[in-house]
Amino acid sequence: MNSTSSVKMIICWIAVGFSALTAFEVAAETNAAPTPSEAQATATTKPKDSELAVCETTIREIIGKAHGVLFFITLPNESDPDDAFLARFGGMPVTVEKGSMSSVIKKDKGEFNVRHQTTGEVGVSILIGPIKWVTNESAELEICYSQSAMGFGQFFYVIERTNNTWAVTKKRQGITM
């Protein structure tokens, strides 16, 4: 575990009021509760390529309309994506870097910014929580993002595969500022 990513994760969790609620529990609070059989589904281990496809789909959903923004990506278990994964975003009008390339820079009065370790450019840190496999074709995950003390948030996603294509089918906002 990298200490910089751990600090970012803790700051993000504190900033968004991280709770131990699962996406199912949060969905239940908004009357979007899954059926009992879905709620009781057992998580299964998936091949790395399926996990990466789910992460890629979710990241594309988040950064899809951004232009000229720097994003730092941290995959589940606080791991950096490899260069091949980052190359998947090469045609987008944003820059995507490994999460370990970011630093949290403290400012006055408890404020902070997420910045590139080398260039100092301000960016947005995207932390992908563990993937919960509901079925072979459906997964849930929590995303936490932060840019500064005044720009952070939490979202819950359901991603499903149809005809070998992964897509976000549900998105629920957690706490956002």
General description of the model:
- This protein has 177 residues and is an alpha+beta fold.
- The chain has one domain.
- The protein has five helices and nine strands.
- The longest helix is centred in the N-terminal third of the chain and has 16 residues, at 48-63.
- The chain starts with a helix and ends with a strand.
Secondary structure: elements and pairs:
Layout: H1 3-15, H2 23-29, H3 36-39, H4 48-63, E1 70-74, H5 83-87, E2 95-98, E3 102-106, E4 112-116, E5 124-128, E6 132-135, E7 138-148, E8 151-162, E9 165-176
Parallel strand pairs: 1-2, 1-5
Antiparallel strand pairs: 3-4, 5-7, 6-7, 7-8, 8-9
Provide key terms for this protein.
seven-stranded mixed sheet, globular, single chain, 9 strands, 5 helices, 25% helix, alpha+beta, two-stranded antiparallel ribbon, 177 residues
Low-confidence stretches: 1-45
Structural class assignment: alpha+beta
Q: Compute the number of helices.
A: 5
If you compute it from the alpha carbons, what radius of gyration comes out, rounded to the nearest whole angstrom? 16 Å
Largest sheet, strands/sense/barrel = 7 strands, mixed
DSSP E strands, number: 9
Helix content: 25-40%
Query: Element order, helices and strands?
Result: HHHHEHEEEEEEEE
Overall mean confidence score, pLDDT: 75
Tell the overall outline.
globular
N-end to C-end Cα span:
27 Å
Strand percent estimate: 35-45%
Number of spatially distinct domains? 1
